[in-house]
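[Q] Does anyone have a clean structure-token version of this?
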Amino acid sequence: MAKNADKKPFARILKHLKWIATGKGYGAVLSLVYLAIITRSLGPAQYGAFSLILSTTMTLQLVLGFNVWQVLVKYGHEHIQSKDFDALACLIRFCTIIDLLTASLGILVVALILWLGSDALGMTGDLAWQTFGYAVVILLSIRNVPRGMLRLQCEFKLSFMAESVVPTVKFAGSLLAVLIHPSVSTFLWTWAAGELASTLVFWVVARRKFRHQFGRPQGRRWYRAWRENDGLPSLLVATNIGETAYAAGQQLPVLLIGFFAGTAEAGLYRLAHQLTQTLSVIAGFINLASYTEMAYLHAKDGLQKIKPLFIRIVLISLGTAAVLLPVIIFLGKPLLLLMSGPQFLGAYPFLLVLGLAAAMQIVSVTSESLLMAAGRSKTLIAIRLIGTAVLLAMLFVLLNGFGAIGAAWARALTEAISLGLILGACYLILRKVKPAS
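[A] Here you go.
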């Protein structure tokens, strides 16, 4: 960050966005291609089964995990400002151990689920073992720590070079699977290979860059990070609740639709969900760049310089959301036909409702950066708990009353409530900032 210190905050965000958009944009385009390959190869029912396996594994990964890259970025900037590189090394090791422990717990939970419930899930012995193998690879693909190390140094170019390995391997593997033997198992192992390859690249690049910048500081007393970083426990809890809320919002509807309406409906919902997430990928761009910059500004100057930056970012996200909705309305059906064929046109109603949810999510996700950077993790915890509770209640009512489309409306209504709460919390924080004299 030091090398860019002479630039204005918004200019630095635009610089970060260039690399984020390049990496994420590349992944978004490839994801549309391999999504088309897999849906046309498997059909609605088999794609639905594949989706349920992915959603189950991802739910466990998110519910049990912590988004430690946010912890690294927030407290790492403070240690860099004070030139306490040993404390930075302790923080990195602490976050790594947290990730390893949660991954180990996740593997035990997956083993227990498959041992007790493989018959209820409709899995044969071979598919259950393959699902377990896939889950082990995914849970051990720990990338949050090296991702945080690179973002801490504003190395978005290197970060998204490593990130791009995932869609590249999935794309190449999907083409190979079509030529050899397109099946749920083949695509599962392709997805696992992409995650594992990206993890290896992340660690090699992050370790090399860190040593070049900071040398070899001592991190043996990693357990002290818990006490040395003020507010770390609550921020960790906030990231876990955030991941749990994300899992509830993104993956739980797929699982419940699969249970109540069958795998084909679950496949249609997931296809629509993936398309809206791909089309709204700009939200992730803005969030990653703005959080890194806001954490830096807060460590350096407090809230004083964050307010004008935050207002500009929210206006950009509102404009992006306004563009997204007509794109989904008018281009959604042709895109579904082009990608997956007429057998997946049933996903269009889901696409419309989830597109509305995605538009609101763009604004809420970018606004969350202020709460995290300003250390208001408890506020964010409360908002996310409320959002998760609302989603569960809405799913119970609307899924029973309206079927699979009710789950999509539950997502949209939950996003609306969460957005209102987040913007309200941001307003209360910024209202206390005194104008610069």
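[Q] Thanks! Anything notable?
[A] The chain has 17 helices and no strands.
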